[in-house]
Amino acid sequence: MSGVNEIRNTFLDYFGANGHAKVPSSSLVPHNDPTLMFTAAGMVQFKNVFTGLEKRDYTRATTSQKCVRAGGKHNDLDNVGYTARHHTFFEMLGNFSFGDYFKEEAITHAWNLVTKEYGLDKDRLLVTIYHTDDQAFDLWKKIAGLPDEKIIRIATSDNFWSAGDTGPCGPCSEIFYDHGDHIWGGPPGSPEEDGDRFVEIWNLVFMQYEQIAPDVRHDLPSPSIDTGMGLERISAVMQGVHDNYDIDLFKALIRASEELTSTKAEGANKASHRVIADHLRATSFLIADGVLPSNEGRGYVLRRIMRRAMRHAHLLGAQDPLMHRLVPSLITQMGAAYPELDRARGLITETLELEETKFRKTLDRGLGLLNDAAAGLKEGDSLSGETAFKLYDTYGFPLDLTQDALRARNIEVDLVGFDTAMEKQKAEARANWSGSGDAADEKVWFALRDEYGATEFFGYETEKAEGVI
Ligand code: ATP
Ligand code: MG
Ligand code: MG
Ligand code: MG
């Protein structure tokens, strides 16, 4: 059985042997694009190469890119632990052509790799194309010999890629693997497509147009290719398991958290172990790339991910901070491919331990309040927005942590009420503010307060003064 590390290398070696430069993953913090929260795809580091703004000494590249989809436009956070195929952090394998080869070669490579190098059973594969892309339809027939019904035309934006309202764009084609009829789900485009039976493993983007204005689209003089395959998803297929969390890498991380908490990843504890393993990767890689927990922007997303994991550690009965003790297992699994993890070992460990130590001071009391408030609620009810706000404001519970805590009981949070409580508190603070009498000062004060949130800025309790909001 191939492990994740071999599967990654097979991909990079295949494209390396076919004239692609092996380029290292870029940082999770996209330095060339302040509008992006995190790097969420392999193409991000090549954005300016695709548009021609930047030249490199190669026209073909292959990468295994670290990705986080837990904030901004791409957000899979709520799926994690509950679907078989979503992570907050994952690796995206990709091959890229910058005005070099196009559709035919891209499809040929993809088909060769999955059926020959990876040896997947052709009968289990099906593809989607953009509904008007007859060229892709013909190529899939010619190259892969797929029957018509396994080349599914999709008319939605799922099969048309663009980075924004203008710029390069084009149709895409996704390769799906059928894990078998013992798993619920239907083929893409069907009403059951959200199930886990048919899993998208690889997305091929054919960048062939440039959008100039809403109705004006030109052909690009030299079209390009951008592809992305989820390493964890292809590993699940290769290892004969249907669920990403059953691959070697995740099994090893989950085993470590089972040992440290003396619990099993079964029944009610299963989701907790998965969330912990997933969030361990996301938090460690983010810290290694220079993100630190804070109350705004990227740092707040990191803090939310950390605290979610910490609540699950608490659910498993961990009496002491847990996350930092899992770092060695992560480095054992991924340190060879990503040496930055080992370089940042001290920082990752200390940051996780400090954050968990601080959060545990309010976690117990917050959960007590939450349990009391939710005790009388039944499935389909909502928790009051005021309670959710109090948990956020006084106990440092990010809203999504509260939502996650209520998920198993099918209870939602009254979001309108949450916003109202937040606004009310802001208004009260304004009314109570006697200030310096200087309007300019006041403006700065409120700007800061809005940016950093009420609690940290007020700092009226010791934990809050320490930064636990
Ligand atoms: P899905 O429809 O399953 O959410 P996607 O269409 O959003 O996937 P793409 O943006 O096409 O995904 O990304 C390329 C590939 O990256 C996907 O084909 C998949 O293999 C992988 N991938 C995407 N999101 C995730 C995730 N959250 N966790 C793990 N792998 C992912
Ligand atoms: Mg998605
Ligand atoms: Mg998709
Ligand atoms: Mg896709």
TrEMBL record:
KW DNA-binding (keyword) present: no
Residue ranges of every copy of the Alanyl-transfer RNA synthetases family profile domain listed in the record: 2-469
Gene Ontology CC terms, in alphabetical order: cytosol
Keywords of this entry: Aminoacyl-tRNA synthetase, ATP-binding, Cytoplasm, Ligase, Metal-binding, Nucleotide-binding, Protein biosynthesis, RNA-binding, tRNA-binding, Zinc
Localization per Swiss-Prot or TrEMBL: Cytoplasm
Acetylation in keyword set: no
EC number: 6.1.1.7
GO MF terms, alphabetically ordered: alanine-tRNA ligase activity; aminoacyl-tRNA deacylase activity; ATP binding; tRNA binding; zinc ion binding
GO BP annotations listed: alanyl-tRNA aminoacylation; negative regulation of DNA-templated transcription
Top-rank taxon, per record: Bacteria
Function: Catalyzes the attachment of alanine to tRNA(Ala) in a two-step reaction: alanine is first activated by ATP to form Ala-AMP and then transferred to the acceptor end of tRNA(Ala). Also edits incorrectly charged Ser-tRNA(Ala) and Gly-tRNA(Ala) via its editing domain.
Protein family: Belongs to the class-II aminoacyl-tRNA synthetase family.
Name of this chain's protein: Alanine--tRNA ligase
Residues of the full protein shown: 1 to 469 of 885
